[in-house]
């Protein structure tokens, strides 16, 4: 009875796993399913437990037989091989995402807008965000001619016209942002009688700004015809600067002073046009800085000659 009952259990197990298992004491059996092979062994029992192994397929396990006294069953398990890995794509310049070695990505591949065609930040710009928004950096351009320029000012030659003055040219290169937000002019000059002098600045747009006109007296006309008594002296080693908002008007330059700037430390002057056409340095704001600028000096009386040693043009953007 016992043997017949065990045999029936073994037969039922074998049928459930798609194979046959012959009975035996401590024997072994194997079964083959669809696309997989299982094996089993029993220790001390009538039938062992099958352990399934599948090659290249889905995980399978063999069905165990009925355990006898002192026997053990071990379920088999397998795992299938993984699929082939896909390829990985690196950063794409122009997709609006700043990735990898990209410094910026403004969602296009053009240059000249702050983010170059290779997604690097161009000189004169800052870029932030995704897609990147690039803005010009506010920087100053400083253009200098001299020292040692030695540009002679025609003595007693000023008539009010630019062509009656000695002019130094300052070439300002184009930058990412050419728009002017502020201008100042430093001048190193040699002259023994500042009341004779007129200084003007001419922008590339041909806007003429009178920086100082015959300081120390009141003019009726901007033609050099009147006498102004102001014997303040300019020396190249003590340059003066014309800047918007300075505490001292250029009209006061040299008044009660022997050597301008050197004697009293007042070296910065707010432009004063005198009898010339209205306008100051802020008139230039919004213009393009790029191009040829002129600094011009005229002399309206005889006897005291002079020259321009250096001019420094500073343009803020």
In short:
Helix content is 5%, strand content 28%. The chain is mostly beta strands and 317 residues long. It has 3 domains: 1-79, no CATH class; 92-137, no CATH class; 140-316, Galactose-binding domain-like (Jelly Rolls, Sandwich), CATH 2.60.120.260.
Question: What's the arrangement of secondary structure elements?
Answer:
Layout: H1 2-16, E1 28-33, E2 36-41, E3 49-53, E4 125-128, E5 133-136, E6 140-145, E7 151-153, E8 166-172, E9 182-191, E10 197-202, E11 208-213, E12 240-243, E13 268-269, E14 291-299, E15 306-316
Parallel strand pairs: 12-13
Antiparallel strand pairs: 1-2, 2-3, 4-5, 6-15, 7-15, 8-14, 9-12, 9-15, 10-11, 10-14
Keywords for this entry:
317 residues, mainly beta, 3 domains, six-stranded mixed β-sheet, four-stranded antiparallel β-sheet, 1 helix, 5% helix, disordered N terminus
Describe the structure.
The protein is mainly beta and 317 residues long. It folds into three domains: 1-79, no CATH class; 92-137, no CATH class; 140-316, Sandwich (Jelly Rolls), CATH 2.60.120.260. The chain has one helix at residues 2-16; strands spanning 28-33, 36-41, 49-53, 125-128, 133-136, 140-145, 151-153, 166-172, 182-191, 197-202, 208-213, 240-243, 268-269, 291-299, 306-316. The strands form four sheets. Strands 6, 7, 9, 12, 13 and 15 form a six-stranded mixed sheet that branches. A four-stranded antiparallel sheet has the order 8-14-10-11, with no helix packed on it. A three-stranded antiparallel sheet has the order 1-2-3, with no helix packed on it. The protein is elongated, with a radius of gyration of 48 Å.
């Amino acid at each position: 009875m016992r043997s017949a009952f065990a045999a029936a259990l073994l037969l039922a197990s074998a049928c459930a796993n798609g194979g046959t298992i012959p009975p035996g004491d401590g024997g072994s059996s194997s079964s083959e399913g669809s696309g997989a092979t299982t094996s089993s062994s029993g220790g001390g029992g009538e039938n062992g437990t099958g352990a399934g192994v599948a090659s290249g397929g889905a995980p399978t396990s063999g069905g165990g037989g009925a355990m006898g006294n002192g026997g053990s069953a071990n379920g088999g398990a397998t795992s299938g091989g993984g699929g082939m890995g896909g390829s990985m794509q690196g950063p794409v310049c122009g997709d609006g995402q700043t990735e990898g070695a990209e410094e910026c990505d403004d969602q296009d591949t053009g240059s000249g807008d702050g983010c170059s065609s290779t997604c690097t930040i161009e000189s004169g710009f800052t870029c932030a965000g995704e897609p990147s928004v690039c803005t010009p950096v506010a920087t100053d351009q400083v253009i200098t001619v001299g020292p040692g320029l030695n540009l002679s000012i025609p003595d007693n030659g000023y008539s009010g016209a630019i062509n009656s003055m000695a002019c130094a040219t300052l070439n300002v290169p184009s930058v990412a942002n050419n728009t002017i937000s502020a201008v100042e002019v430093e001048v190193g000059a040699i002259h023994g009688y500042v009341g004779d002098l007129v200084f003007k600045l001419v922008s590339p747009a041909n806007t003429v700004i009178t920086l100082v006109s015959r300081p120390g007296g009141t003019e009726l006309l901007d033609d050099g015809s009147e006498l102004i008594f102001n014997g303040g002296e300019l020396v190249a080693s003590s340059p003066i600067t014309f800047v918007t908002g300075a505490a001292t008007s250029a009209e006061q330059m040299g008044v009660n002073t022997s050597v301008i700037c050197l004697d009293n430390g007042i070296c910065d002057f707010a432009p004063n046009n005198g009898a010339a056409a209205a306008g100051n340095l802020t008139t230039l704001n919004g213009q393009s800085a790029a191009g040829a600028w002129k600094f011009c000096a005229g002399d309206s009386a005889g006897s005291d000659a002079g020259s321009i040693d250096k001019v420094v043009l500073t343009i803020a953007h």
